[in-house]
Design brief:
single chain, alpha/beta, 12-stranded parallel β-sheet, two-stranded parallel ribbon, globular
């Protein structure tokens, strides 16, 4: 029966199993019609993770890691077409430990990694996580740089990544001619001077237009670079922006506000983790981004002494009052609230949310389909009646079926307790 299935149906089935390698291996055993498609899924993502160099058994673990790489290389040699199946490459834990640098097991692990990376010419997404660029052997740096230069590469993710200078990082990113997605999560460098020009990289030749993600990153150097006439990257056609601020300094808010203004009307999806209690938070608003379709506000704190409602009103009133805004296309709003629990805060702080309900009831927000609250921070939160309080204080959103409330960990007992407290309101 399996062999009689149309090839298109087999492809569709296996395309949904790329994260289940054990299932794909079993599928490859069904018959010849399943083998090639299953193998594409099995080899779609390769993770090369060096063992923890502080582990007491590092040498044994490194030897096992090298042996696995050698097996993979033998497989590639027998079936060269498998190398083209690798679309995602992840290098992890290539960080510095001077005690291990000269060990033969460490050198062999780097050498085997280099040979694997050299085989891959069809990578679409490259991730470097917990990697120190200067720690890589010269051969491995060259191999990874060649991946940056492949025409197939469209997405780069750097997480806890160290490099000696921003200039080096700019050079690497400038090699990705088709870069459309860039994610940077914790970045470390000593020299933060932005480059003035990069050889053989025409200005604005790389359209970074799908997604830009900054998490706990000093954005000022990037912004300086993006504005240079010689910068190869063009971000003003960007559709999705994620900004997560860590230290809540004035430059963080200024840089976030600048990005919103610089990208402007092309931006359609925005995710912000911006502490709203800082006086500088009012610099960030949606007045320059009238075409947003989706907004997510992460880890917004509400305490007995502080309500984020005035900050949220500032975001959207600027949005509504924009000179460029004849109509608002916002369809999805997600507010992730981190709540400090107390009975006083539960009863009185939620009263302020009526102003948000009034704002979103205006005709200019007619396109809004869903307002989702994700409530964090309190065990058995539903038992305190928060969902009921929200419904009472957001009557328009509730009556128009736009209000959604997600309470992680709320079970059946919590839902029953919600009904028990309804009479209080």
């Amino acid at each position: 029966m399996a062999s009689s299935l149309p090839h298109e149906l087999i492809e569709c089935i296996l395309d949904n199993l790329h994260h289940e390698k054990s299932t794909l291996i079993n599928c490859a055993l069904i018959g010849k019609a399943w083998v090639l498609s299953a193998q594409r899924g099995i080899f779609q993502r390769i993770v090369l993770q060096l063992p923890n160099q502080y582990h007491e058994d590092f040498e044994e673990l490194a030897a096992a890691y090298t042996a696995r790489n050698e097996q993979l290389l033998e497989l590639f040699e027998r079936n060269p077409y498998l190398t083209s199946c690798v679309r995602t490459l992840e290098l992890k834990q290539f960080s510095h430990d001077s005690r291990r640098a000269s060990h033969s097991s460490n050198r062999m692990a780097h050498a085997s990694t280099t040979r694997v990376v050299e085989q891959l010419s069809n990578v679409k997404k490259l991730t470097l996580a917990r990697c120190d660029w200067e720690t890589l052997t010269p051969e491995l740096r060259t191999a990874v740089t060649d991946v940056f230069k492949t025409s197939s590469l469209t997405a780069v993710s750097l997480s806890h990544f160290s490099i000696s200078s921003f200039n080096q990082l700019a050079f690497l990113l400038s090699q990705v001619s088709c870069l459309s997605v860039l994610k940077i999560d914790f970045l470390y460098y000593q020299n933060g001077d932005a480059p003035t020009t990069i050889a053989n990289c025409p200005p604005r030749s790389i359209q970074l237009d799908q997604r830009l993600h900054f998490r706990f990153v000093n954005m000022r150097t990037f912004i300086t670079w993006f504005q240079q006439d010689t910068c190869p990257l063009e971000i003003r056609n960007l559709q999705t922006l994620h900004v997560h601020i860590r230290h809540a300094t004035a430059p963080d808010y200024e840089d976030t506000a600048f990005l919103l203004q610089y990208i402007g009307g092309n931006l359609q999806e925005l995710e912000l983790q911006v502490p709203p209690w800082n006086p500088h938070s009012t610099l960030v608003h949606f007045g320059y981004t009238p075409n947003l379709r989706s907004v997510t506000l992460l880890r917004i704190q509400q305490t007995e002494l502080y309500s984020p409602v005035p900050w949220i009103l500032n975001l959207f009133e600027s949005f509504e009052n924009s000179d460029d805004c004849k109509s608002i296309f916002l369809r999805q709003l997600t507010i992730q609230l981190d709540i400090e629990y107390s009975d006083e805060a539960m009863i009185h702080r939620w009263d302020k949310w009526g102003a948000v309900d009034t704002l979103l009831a205006r005709p200019t927000f007619a396109s809004l389909q869903t307002v989702k609250f994700e409530l964090l921070g309190v065990p058995s939160l539903a038992s305190s009646g928060v969902e009921t309080i929200l419904s009472v204080n957001l009557p328009f959103l509730q009556s128009s079926n736009k209000l959604q409330v997600q309470i992680p960990g709320a079970g059946e007992a919590d839902i029953k307790s919600i009904k028990a407290v309804t009479s209080r309101f």
